[in-house]
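Hey, can you fold this one?
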Amino acid sequence: MQNWIGIGIWIVMGAVIGLVMKALISRPEETPGHTPVLLVLGAFAAVIGGMLGVGTFHLYQPLAISPGGMAGAAIFAIMMTFVYRWGLRTLI
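Sure. Predicted structure:
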């Protein structure tokens, strides 16, 4: 049960990080409709990053609510939403 709660925290944290990235990196030529994409991308990236963080730092007792899992989720969600918000949008 504790792992499911941790994964839920990752999803919410990733969605919030997506909204923060939208507020921090403003695009004047942006068309409407990017908020749901950022929410889903941030949540997905947080789950993947959390799994990588747990797998890297906690091999013997893997718990989703651990410092490695939370840090991995936050870092990967920040990286992916930043790439979407700044990097890919300038290439298109």
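The helical segments are 2-24, 34-57, 67-91. Let me know if you want another pass with a different chain boundary.
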